[in-house]
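Re: the request from the purification team.
They wanted to know what the chain is likely to look like in 3D before they choose a buffer screen. I agreed to run a prediction and write the result into the notebook, where they can find it.
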Amino acid sequence: QEAQVEAQEAQVELTPLECQLLRTCREDARTGQELLQAAGYAKRTGNFKRSLDKLLETQLLEMTIPGKPTSRLQKYRLTDKARVWLANRKPAE
């Protein structure tokens, strides 16, 4: 069963925007505003929010303050799963 779960996780298809958000968090935790700027947005759009939600749902990103999702101090960081996912990608992806 564990192998089946891993196989499903490996099949996560990410959009270029989602990949960009992950790469932005590679070095350090980032605020929502920093992620917006890295994605080229001036303000939160539905597309950006869906992408961020998907990364949180698939456990590729996590909140630094999970108990307070709307905190002004909230940041997003890569999970170990995301680091493995990024390591298995070609630089161009």
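For the purification team: Residues 46-57 form the longest helix (12 residues).
Please add any questions underneath this entry.
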